[in-house]
Amino acid sequence: MTEKFQVTRRTILAGAAFAGALAPIISTSEARAEGGEIKTNAKATAAQIAALPRQKIELVKPPFVHAHTQKAEGGPKVVEFTMTIEEKKLIIDDQGTEVHAMTFNGSVPGPLMVVHQDDYVELTLINPETNTLQHNIDFHSATGALGGGALTVVNPGEKTVLRFKATKAGVFVYHCAPPGMVPWHVTSGMNGAIMVLPRDGLKDGKGNELAYDKIYYVGEQDFYVPKDEKGNFKKYESAGDAYQDVLQVMRSLTPSHVVFNGAVGALTGENALKAEVGDRVLIVHSQANRDTRPHLIGGHGDYVWATGKFHNPPETDQETWFIPGGAAGAAYYTFQQPGIYAYVNHNLIEAFELGAAGHFTVTGEWNDDLMTSVLAPSAS
């Protein structure tokens, strides 16, 4: 208990200016949550929301996505999610490098949540008493109270329930953002994405429907693992023990690892993403902290929402697209040839040296019209 208090105090002091700036927002939001005297102009009363149909969703571990309809069925509803915060040790490469990760539902990234525009998202967020740190959640898709961060601060042994209306269509980042500790939590893996689909589904910018056969979620994560005087990655008993050293590496702005879905090789080999020739695949890609440049080697982005907002017309036929840090994007591609496709951050140093790469394994018949070997490599 003593260690928990010291770690929390240290991190809050390290971010004192930020925490001070948030204080009026947090206090106002807490007053609103407790029924304080704050004037509102609600478009829907509590009774009206209570009368809406409710749907309970079981989240799944990325790169997979829970079952959902691409077009809304009926009117708005309240979509219920539950996420449990888990502080855990992760091995992030084949050298046994360790990080003390902070996670939503135990995975890096956290699960992709899917709703439709004008639905209400109702999240139960649980911080088990076995954890040591304070946490919360900031939805970039939400309006007000620091994206929900000011209303969801939970200490170990507590839970909270947040409801917000999904007013904007697109894919958006969510992440932990406790006062004074935001970058530490985000770069320790505590981020994910939510997809808010238009009620009539995705469109190509000309009004034509874009239905997908498969959807995958790729969360890009930068880790900052300290090294000892011999250049070996250090290991620590706890996140608190690692904090000061990790903070120094973070301040260098130079990650030790940049990975997809929590570890080097997490989306390769047996874990490669699967598709067949002719499959229409939607790839949701998020980066909560740094800019990234997704590229599908051997394929394209037929339709790309680089900043992830579905009411903007998608760009077409893209080779590489740019997703700014703190955002999520979406790319739609119909696979036309079988084989192994590398999906990378096209900062090739980050892809091949730091780990930001995955694979699609595609089955089907080869089309010589699209590509053929006229002369195999030979001496003449």
Describe the 3D structure:
- Helices cover 16% and strands 32% of the residues.
- The relative contact order is 0.13.
- The protein starts with a helix and ends in a 17-residue tail after the last strand.
- It contains 6 helices and 19 strands.
- Residues 1-6 and 8-18 have low confidence and may be disordered.
- It is α/β, with parallel strands linked by helices.
- The strands form 4 sheets. It has a 6-stranded mixed sheet, with no helix packed on it. Strands 1, 2, 3, 5 and 7 form a 5-stranded mixed sheet that branches.
Blueprint (SSEs and pairs):
Blueprint: H1 2-14, H2 16-33, H3 46-50, E1 54-56, E2 78-91, E3 98-104, E4 112-116, E5 120-127, E6 138-139, E7 158-165, E8 170-175, H4 182-186, E9 191-197, E10 214-223, H5 239-251, E11 257-260, E12 273-276, E13 280-287, E14 294-296, E15 301-305, E16 315-318, E17 327-334, E18 339-345, H6 348-352, E19 357-363
Parallel strand pairs: 1-2, 2-5, 4-9, 10-13, 12-19
Antiparallel strand pairs: 2-3, 5-7, 6-8, 8-9, 10-11, 13-17, 14-18, 15-16, 15-17, 18-19
Rg, rounded, reads: 22 Å
Topology, number of strands: 19
Lateral strand order in the biggest sheet: 11-10-13-17-15-16
Give the N-to-C terminal Cα separation: 74 Å
The portion of residues assigned to helices is 10-25%
Write down the secondary-structure element order. HHHEEEEEEEEHEEHEEEEEEEEHE
Mean pLDDT: 92
